Every structure is written in C-alpha cells, then in structure tokens.
Amino acid sequence: AAEQWEILRSIHPALSENVPPVSECPPPLPETPETAEPEDAIALPEPIV
User: Fold this and answer.
1) What does the pLDDT look like over 3-27, one tens digit per residue?
2) The whole model's pTM is what?
3) Structure confidence at residue 10 (pLDDT)
4) What are the phi and psi torsion angles at 25 (to 5°)?
5) Which ranges of the chain would DSSP assign to H, the alpha helix?
6) What is the CA 41 to chain-centroid distance, rounded?
C-alpha cells in the first residue's frame, strides 16, 4: 500500500497533503463474522410461497 501511495503522490502531489502518514492511519479492523464471510451475510432471497 505504501508503494501505491508513493506512485499516487508522484502523479498527483496534492494527494500527499491530504493523506496522513501511514503511521497515523488507524489499524485495520479485526475480522468479525460479519466482515470475514460476506457471502453468508448476503443470503439468497427466500422463495415466495
């Protein structure tokens, strides 16, 4: 991800002013059953009887 930001900054220097350093970015959220398996969250529509 850091390399992508370096590329983006080189293409669009203004981005570096709005993007905080990586050290200040919050850590990624821990995987929860909701986010870990989105396939199960999106259940098939129940058949109409």
Assistant:
1) 876 777 677 665 556 665 666 556 6
2) 0.22
3) 74
4) -70, 140
5) 2-11, 14-18, 33-36, 38-41
6) 18
Is residue 22 within 8 Å of 8, Cβ to Cβ?
A: no
What's the CA gap between 18 and 16, in Å, rounded? 6
- Give 7: exposed, middle or buried? Use CB within 10 Å, 0-12, 13-18, 19+: exposed
C-alpha–C-alpha distance, residues 40 and 20, integer Å: 35
Q: Residue 1 has which token pair? A: 């991800």
Name the nearest CA neighbour of 19 among 32, 5, 7, 3: 5
Specify the 3-state DSSP secondary structure of 43.
coil
Whether 8 contacts 15, CB under 8 Å: yes
